[in-house]
Amino acid sequence: MELEFGAQSDRGCVRENNEDSYRAAPDLNLFILSDGMGGLDCGEVASRLAVDTILEHCRKGQASASFPFTGLRIDGVSELTNRLASAVRVANHAVHSAAQHSATNRPMGATVVAVQFADERMSLANVGDSRVYRLRGEDFEQLTRDHSFVAEQMRQGRMTAQEADSSKLHNVLIRALGVDPEVEVDASEELVLEGDTVLLCSDGLTRELSDSQISAVLRETEDAQEATERLIDLAKQAGGGDNITAIVLRSAARPVGALGRVSRLGKWIKDSAERHRR
Amino acid sequence: MPKLVLKFENAVLREVPVGAKEVSIGRSPENGIVIDNPAVSHFHARVFNEEGRIMLEDFGSLNGTFVNGQRVKMVTLKPGDSVAIGKHTIVISDSRDLDGFAAGNGNGKPAPAAPKLNETVMLDTKARRDFLQKVAAVGESAQVSPARMKVATLVVRGGRTNQREYMLNDKLTVIGKSAMATVKLKGWFAPKAAAQINRRDDQSYYIGPADKTPSVNGQPITQPTKLSSGDVINVAGIELEFVYRD
Fold this sequence. Notes:
The structure holds two protein chains of two kinds.
Chain A: E1 3-10, E2 20-25, E3 30-37, H1 42-63, H2 79-101, E4 109-110, E5 112-118, E6 121-127, E7 131-136, E8 139-142, H3 149-155, H4 161-166, E9 172-173, E10 186-191, E11 197-201, H5 203-206, H6 211-220, H7 224-237, E12 244-251, H8 257-277
Helix pairs in contact in A: 1-2, 6-7
Chain B: E1 2-8, E2 11-17, E3 23-26, E4 33-34, E5 45-50, E6 53-58, E7 66-67, E8 70-71, E9 74-77, E10 82-85, E11 88-94, H1 98-103, E12 121-122, H2 125-143, E13 151-158, E14 165-167, E15 172-176, E16 183-184, E17 195-199, E18 205-209, E19 215-216, E20 219-220, E21 225-226, E22 231-235, E23 238-245
Parallel strand pairs in B: 3-4, 15-16
Antiparallel strand pairs in B: 1-2, 1-11, 3-5, 5-6, 6-9, 7-8, 7-10, 10-11, 13-14, 13-23, 15-17, 17-18, 18-21, 19-20, 19-22, 22-23
């Protein structure tokens, strides 16, 4: 599958540092985003450690299928999804150890979302309140669950969306990397269709912009990098109260079924004709 | 008008004004303030206005109602009082001075400093454990369904596929020619991914369109749609019946 991506991170308009980190590994079709927390530079350290650890674990897993997994196997999802969940658990351990051993001994933590594509499957893993959205035709949908206090209250029907919006506890997480020695990772899979747009973002984007503002940008902007930049610009215009990071992924339109084979055959004939001419 | 501010830890969950009508408090959904916690009785207590005085009455609840730390049967409440029911707190606030009361927790101690705007924080460890335990308990009860012990299965009724039956063990099941498809279609014109079936967290199965628009019981499916036992799916020239097997 052809995958186009754009990625950017911005300090925003208020914060003095950027505690978000991201990694794009197009060779693995792997994209990771993390929002760190903790005083001084702890947030930066935590998020960077999280994304680097995940990337390294997935790379080793790709190189050797026998590279050990960490944590309990999740049933009903592929090897690749299990690998991604395993990588997030290793990242949790890494951030947790770093927090224990840091000279300042200050608590540090991080959210994480990671997606990886293989064939028509997208594997997702997340902890915290950074999100993955998908735009498919007219439908704009959040694919991850936020591990925040208000989101959990809403799921249990104890808070309405309105109450949640006005709650002062938006920023209280119930799960994050680095807080406990072990963490529960949400892992799932989605089918990828041609033309799908997938967005990974930190809460600095979603706190400033509504779903309809975000989906409008994704619909109107063809180039993935340009879409990321426009999203961040809009979030900054809206206040930019937090660090903002966005990764936009687009599965390129490809001809399907018999038609695809015919056009690939056509391309092959054309290519070989050109080779002959040379 | 005075208000009852329902809080959990330092989170404000609800604000309910006390007018002429009494406000009942309890676990049952009929109450004006519902606290969904096993430590709270179905009809636990009520707050009502008596000639301008705000009264609280405990209905003889098992675990009691506490005002500023004292177990009470019937008392007059004043702004700033803190009513503890189970692990929840109800603070009495005079709306003229809401901020003042909301900031204190009623026992004279100042509330912990609120986190700076937009700064992400974790619930502290003990609060989070309690909370997660409660979440897990709710999740468990929601998962008890008659289909729980049964296996969702697709039975092929017509068309060319690689098996006659498919057990839906995976979160994502794809019908198509793709390498990742469970229900493998054969033939030159078969689409890579004709349709998808997702298992959701509540263990129910939803079918949705992919390269093709499937139909369920003759109805075209353009949005993810929940499958029930006996549903007949038609897509890309094949017919499947969705059933729960023992």
